Amino acid sequence: MINTHSYTPKVFGIGLPKTGNTSLARFLVNQGLSGVQYPSAKIWRNLIPYQFVLDTPCNIYFRELSLLYPEAKIILTHRNDSDWKVSWQVHKEKVKPKNNWQRYLRSQITFTPSEHLKAVDSFLNDYFILNLDDLDIEGLCEYLNLPVKPYPKENVTI
């Protein structure tokens, strides 16, 4: 039996790289949750131990995750396409994939945040959009049933 007073559903962050995933991870850790951002292939095979999983490959496999974990809270970090394109390009030039898993995942990011938002919106009914251009931290905390705390800004390129 689940103790509903301490139960926290799994949280998946399905935003593209460079849309605020690192800040979201820090925020969730500051809230007392444990998890992983940009999981390795080994971790991806077993997500059970983690309260949150963010970043690629969640953004690629959000449909499958929503079916496997129907009670999960899903957060789409989002930013405008023009800022994202610059930030993503800088990131790709500075950070090279270290293995085949990372090379494969990077090759799958072939869409912009607005295209990703359309794909997510056409499949999911219940998710929270965390827009970097207009952060709604109170709404995020309400969606996750967590207390309102300051939101960090991590790994900012532009």
Q: What portion of residues is helical?
A: 25-40%
Structural class per helix/strand content? alpha/beta
What is the average of the pLDDT values?
Answer: 92
Distance between the termini: 46 Å
Shape: globular
The helix-strand sequence is EHEHEHEHHHEH
Q: Indicate the low-confidence ranges by residue numbers.
A: 1-6
Oligomer: single chain
Counting DSSP H or I runs of 4 or more residues, the number of helices is 7
Domain count, please report it.
1
What is the CATH fold-level name? Rossmann fold
- Strand order within the widest beta sheet: 2-3-1-4-5
CATH homology group: P-loop containing nucleotide triphosphate hydrolases
- Per CATH, the architecture is 3-Layer(aba) Sandwich
> Beta fraction of the residues?
5-15%
Specify Rg, calculated over alpha carbons: 15 Å
CATH domain class: Alpha Beta
Report on the biggest sheet. Answer: 5 strands, parallel
* Overall strand count: 5
